[in-house]
Amino acid sequence: MPELRTLDNNMSNSSIDDTILAVAESDWLKVALVIVDAARAGGSGLLDNDQGYQAIGKRIEVLVREGRLIAQGNLKKPRYSEVRLPGPLLTKPASGCARQLRMLSGIKCIWAREHNKGANDVPTWTDLRPYLGRKPRCPQGGTYTLGRVEDPPKCSHGG
Fold it and tell me: 111 vs 8, 14, 36, 73, 106, CA distance in Å?
């Protein structure tokens, strides 16, 4: 597989793989969220556009084939598939809320990119419905607040 083209052409596939593995967790995460988090964690070296996101998605597929990540769902559809690190599943009750908040953060970024929105724009639940299917619920009974694109979503429970 060819090397991923980066802004500075210095990041190798193994560096990108390391970045992906650093943002992955032992609990299931949406592939779209892992892609966005890896692009952010990769800093200015990674292309921050559809080409860069698609290339990170392809590296995730390679990591799954190599057994360095475990997947469920169709990896070609990052919004509807999930990955996690190999090993025991370590889901904790409190992590469900945190995982939902991380997912919402990633979906807000995807929405903003696809609709040419800025960091100060505030999506509505209706705006995000195509990405979510239905509004997520906090496992501890809290209420989610989306906020601006650049701000992380919040939960009244404190997740």
Answer: 27, 29, 12, 21, 9
Side-chain half-sphere exposure of 125, counting CA atoms within 13 A: 8
Does residue 41 sit within a domain? Answer: yes
Q: How far is CA 96 from CA 5, 43, 126, 138, in A?
A: 35, 27, 23, 7
Look up the pTM and report it: 0.53
Check whether residue 99 and residue 148 sit in a common domain: yes
Q: Quick one: tokens of 28? A: 């299931």
Rounded Cα distance, 139 and 96, in Å: 6
Domain that holds residue 103: 95-155
Task: List pLDDT tens digits, range 38-52.
Answer: 888 776 556 566 777
